[in-house]
Amino acid sequence: MSSKSSSVCVYLLLLLLVSGTRTAVSHWVVKTLPGFPGELPFKLETGYISVGEVEFFYYFVESEGNPGADPLLLYINGGPGCSALNGLLYQIVIIIMLLQTANVLFLDAPVGAGFSYATISEAWSASDTIVAAQAYEFLRNWLIEHSNFMNNPVYLGSDSYQGVVTPILAQDIINGNEAGIEPQVNIKGLSLGCPHTNTDLEDNTRVIFAHRMALISDAMYKSAKTSCNGNYIDSTNANCTEAVASISQCIEQVNEADILGPNCAFISPKPKEGAQGFLNEYSRNFILPWSGNGDFWCKNFDYILFDIWINYKSVQDALHVRPGTVKEVFRCNITLTSEYSYNVKDAIPYHKNLTNSGLQILVFSGDHDMSVTHIAVEQWINSLDLTIDTEWRPWFVDGQVAGELDTLQQSTNARNVMTCSIDGFTTILSSSFLQLLLLEER
Ligand SMILES: *[C@@H]1O[C@H](CO)[C@@H](O)[C@H](O)[C@H]1NC(C)=O
Ligand SMILES: *[C@@H]1O[C@H](CO)[C@@H](O)[C@H](O)[C@H]1NC(C)=O
Ligand SMILES: *[C@@H]1O[C@H](CO)[C@@H](O)[C@H](O)[C@H]1NC(C)=O
């Protein structure tokens, strides 16, 4: 442990000497964060990596196992436009703290998410293919600056919308490695949480999902099934449109991302906006005082806490954010979401290629998520025509059923694709960590 940290110090010193005249050091160790009592319980580094005219901000959490050999997981959030800190605080911090077997590199991408910014106006544009290409270059540049991680096995992780970009990124890396681009990236696999893959497929499964989850009646489902003939998004079929519209109306009040979760409609004039975590006058004046008694029953409250905490100067100073580069920061940047160019409508062709790549692929879905339904995920996995290695079965943790799991074998080699759906699950983490931070700061 001590020899490892001293070798890191020597390396940092060398880096300082070598790059001292070229650029200023662009990464820092963060030991404390405003609101958190004492030192952080993990080793955190933040920094910037330049990719063309974009300055990408990242958070790096080092493994407490064997950082020199443990996997390096590059994790990008969905949205598009949600900050890396969203993943760190709400999605996998508990896993990091419990398992401590991976180095995790959280990237603020696309540009405009979190603290990443462009230095010229043309560089603000982002699309699925641009983000994949930039993330690949980011990773290579990061490895050059952290050469002691150069040979670690690399995994790509993402959730939700980013599910469409991650296989493109994997393909870019494979193509780059084959073309001899340096440094070579030792890619081993991907982990996709509730991955957006194909909009039509996802939209088409929502009716089936609502029926399977008993959100709509058998009669309503049968009527839609007859009218739509399996195609629930056929806008040319008036009877189908009508049947689907009445289903939509029936489930309108259900929280799409978490069907058993509270909709929290009454705390916000526009529930959809509330879910985005807007820091607006309404939330400042109403939600915060109201939830000030510690009654954080609605997840949206935690998201608002995030938007407040991350805008404290003391927090940004502690994270070494470059002053003046980002005016106001949000958990998810909805301007980005609306300006983004959605240029890959279907990621299945990328997945087809990846099944022949020898990569390990883990796909997991929450079975209460109606936005990227587990049914859609199962459908595109089935379309890859893989051989089933172990059949669909319940998966238990300490005698409690926790989900369902199967393993599929790839066509040309013995690597596994694992799929699972997690019972009662939408996002992994409790948000007590962030609540603690904010309450301490106040
Ligand atoms: C649509 O519904 C109406 C009323 O039930 C029916 O008469 C008509 O045949 C349906 N159209 C098609 C194309 O099925
Ligand atoms: C959000 O992203 C856009 C780029 O799409 C950027 O111009 C903007 O500064 C970002 N931040 C906010 C708070 O809108
Ligand atoms: C899949 O691989 C083939 C053969 O290498 C290539 O021509 C094609 O462009 C790839 N598809 C995607 C979506 O990358």
From TrEMBL:
UniProt organism field: Quercus suber (Cork oak)
PANTHER family: SERINE CARBOXYPEPTIDASE-LIKE 18 (PTHR11802:SF335), SERINE PROTEASE FAMILY S10 SERINE CARBOXYPEPTIDASE (PTHR11802)
Keywords: Signal
Record carries keyword Signal: yes
A molecular function (GO) term: acyltransferase activity, transferring groups other than amino-acyl groups
Alphabetical list of Gene3D superfamilies matching this protein: 3.40.50.12670, alpha/beta hydrolase
One GO-annotated biological process of the protein: proteolysis
Higher taxonomy: Eukaryota, Viridiplantae, Streptophyta, Embryophyta, Tracheophyta
Pfam annotation, one family: Peptidase_S10
Protein name: Serine carboxypeptidase-like 18
